[in-house]
């Protein structure tokens, strides 16, 4: 028990640079209080004491601003950072090492009692501020949910989900989408910030680069045609008003989509 309490405190000291001491974490972190209150509530819920479990959960909601249903399963080293307004549903499961920020909802989309209605988070998942993860699917180990994303389908391990509805940025060679070197894979990223951005922006940049390349090729062809038309031996080649220089402003367009 004491080892687990130490682990709860240490995970906050590791992930929050604002945490200055163990005493400060114990006395001033509502996310830690919510975890500690959830454990007796969860024990009551699974030992037939439904009302006491709900009452402890209700008290924790009033005391911390974090609502965790007593039926939810929470692993070790889970950190609710700030976490005001977090809602965790009855059949939700949160894996070891997860970080959940303020305004997050782990909600259900089914009204059937007894069914798996809420999401399952794997290990080391980061769910950023305001995100909504809705449904009884899985979010893979090491995945990241972007701020204000609305996730309604499974997220593969190591991937990042952004947007409304959330679109998936795949992982790179099994690593999280925000790392470029294997040794960085274990580094915690606050709020799930990645070097990659919206997949739509990536698609737009690809189309811009492709259009720029095509215009370059077309300009080269017209330059070749002009040389042929300037040769007296090619009397049948008539020059025309072709664009001999590239006019496509790929750089400006890439700036607009955030390159």
For the structure shown, list the relevant keywords.
single chain, 259 residues, alpha/beta, 35% helix
Explain what this protein looks like in three dimensions.
By secondary structure, the chain is of the alpha/beta class. It is built from 6 helices and 15 strands. The strands form 3 sheets. Strands 3-6-9-12-14-15 form a 6-stranded mixed β-sheet. Strands 1-4-7-10-13 form a 5-stranded parallel β-sheet. Strand 14 and strand 15 form a beta hairpin. The chain is elongated, with a radius of gyration of 27 Å. The two termini are 49 Å apart.
Strand content: 5-15%
Please tell me what the overall shape is: elongated
Number of helices: 6
Overall pLDDT confidence:
82
Low-confidence stretches: 177-186
What is the terminal separation in angstroms?
49 Å
Helix content: 25-40%
SSE string, helix = H, strand = E? HHHHEEEEEEEEEEEEEEEHH
Write the topology of this structure.
Blueprint: H1 2-15, H2 22-28, H3 30-45, H4 50-64, E1 67-68, E2 73-74, E3 79-80, E4 87-88, E5 93-94, E6 99-100, E7 105-107, E8 120-121, E9 126-127, E10 132-134, E11 138-139, E12 144-145, E13 150-151, E14 160-162, E15 167-169, H5 199-230, H6 250-256
Parallel strand pairs: 1-4, 2-5, 3-6, 4-7, 5-8, 6-9, 7-10, 8-11, 9-12, 10-13, 12-14
Antiparallel strand pairs: 14-15
Helix pairs in contact: 3-4
């Amino acid at each position: 028990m004491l080892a687990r309490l130490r682990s709860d405190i240490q995970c906050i000291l590791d992930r929050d640079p604002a945490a200055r001491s163990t005493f400060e974490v114990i006395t001033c972190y509502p996310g830690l209080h919510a975890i500690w209150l959830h454990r007796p509530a969860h024990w009551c819920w699974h030992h037939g004491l439904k009302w006491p479990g709900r009452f402890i959960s209700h008290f924790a909601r009033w005391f911390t601003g974090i609502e965790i249903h007593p039926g939810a399963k929470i692993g070790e080293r889970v950190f609710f950072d700030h976490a005001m307004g977090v809602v965790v549903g009855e059949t939700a499961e949160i894996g070891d090492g997860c970080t959940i920020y303020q305004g997050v909802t782990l909600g259900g989309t089914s009204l059937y009692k007894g069914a798996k209605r809420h999401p399952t988070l794997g290990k080391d998942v980061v769910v950023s501020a305001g995100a909504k993860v809705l449904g009884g699917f899985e979010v893979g180990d090491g995945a990241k949910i972007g701020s204000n994303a609305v996730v309604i389908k499974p997220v593969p391990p190591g991937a990042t989900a952004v947007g409304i509805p959330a679109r998936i940025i795949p992982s790179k060679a099994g690593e999280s989408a925000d790392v470029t070197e294997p040794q960085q894979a274990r580094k915690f990223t606050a709020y799930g910030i990645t070097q990659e951005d919206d997949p739509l922006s990536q698609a737009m940049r690809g189309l811009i680069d492709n259009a720029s390349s095509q215009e370059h090729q077309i300009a080269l062809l017209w330059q070749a045609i002009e040389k042929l038309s300037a040769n007296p031996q090619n009397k049948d080649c008539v020059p025309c008003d072709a664009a001999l220089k590239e006019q496509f402003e790929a750089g400006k367009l890439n700036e607009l989509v955030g390159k």
